[in-house]
């Protein structure tokens, strides 16, 4: 496929000008005259330099990679039809839709963007973390940094001992059963060749505990409604987790809350502050390090 530079530039400008700061979780500011978002705001949302994004709107620069186009589609909160159109304009075949897609729907993103002071994360059906709020990073650590099969929280549970440090030892056995049963259900649903099948094959080869649980053929085992943590900085926490499911993309928005007036509620407030401070320090130290297309 051939890139349509004029079409790509026109589409990007149109989408940028149609979005307002509050649509993407940004503050409006007192002296705003720009119609829609500024180029530097879109560039930050897309994790690229302003210069690189600006060149695309001006029909200049090299052909953007599929990775960069996926980032732009997500940053501009495009739906799947708009995402696919953007890929074609950039000269690429659109990624497949369905359970393995990592493109988060605009509706789910709009809700997520309004949860900045709450531990919340968007995960795939196999436990890959796609988005985390700052308080969620303070609670769970940065789960978006993993690559390969380790992106799956269930895979890490059986292969990385550090994954269990946050959870109470007396809960470990039930959580192991839950992860194994959930993966078995996904494998039956998605079939051979799916991400679930690949993870099951890896875990059968790497984890004796997983192999013993797999042989039992359990399904329908669920995590406890109240999740118990032993956090390094704030200590014991008991949190409820509510999930909002996107049926088209098989993504879940997980929101962690505590009962008001409890000790866990106070500690969760502390974590929100810790997360905000960490995010501020990271931004101040890193500066504007985006350099555009890294492919």
Protein model, in words:
By secondary structure, the chain is of the alpha+beta class. The protein folds into two domains: 5-95, 434 Repressor (Amino-terminal Domain), CATH 1.10.260.40; 106-284, Beta-Lactamase (2-Layer Sandwich), CATH 3.30.450.180. It is built from twelve helices and five strands. The chain has helices spanning 5-18, 39-45, 50-57, 66-75, 80-89, 106-113, 134-140, 153-159, 172-190, 195-206, 208-214, 263-286, and strands at 120-123, 129-132, 226-231, 235-246, 251-257. A hairpin with a 5-residue loop joins strand 1 and strand 2 (129-132). The radius of gyration is 21 Å and the shape is globular. Residues 281-295 have low confidence and may be disordered. Residues 35-83 form the HTH cro/C1-type domain. This is Helix-turn-helix domain-containing protein.
Q: Helices, strands, pairings?
A:
Elements: H1 5-18, H2 39-45, H3 50-57, H4 66-75, H5 80-89, H6 106-113, E1 120-123, E2 129-132, H7 134-140, H8 153-159, H9 172-190, H10 195-206, H11 208-214, E3 226-231, E4 235-246, E5 251-257, H12 263-286
Antiparallel strand pairs: 1-2, 1-5, 3-4, 4-5
Helix pairs in contact: 2-3, 2-4, 4-5, 7-12, 9-10, 9-11, 10-11
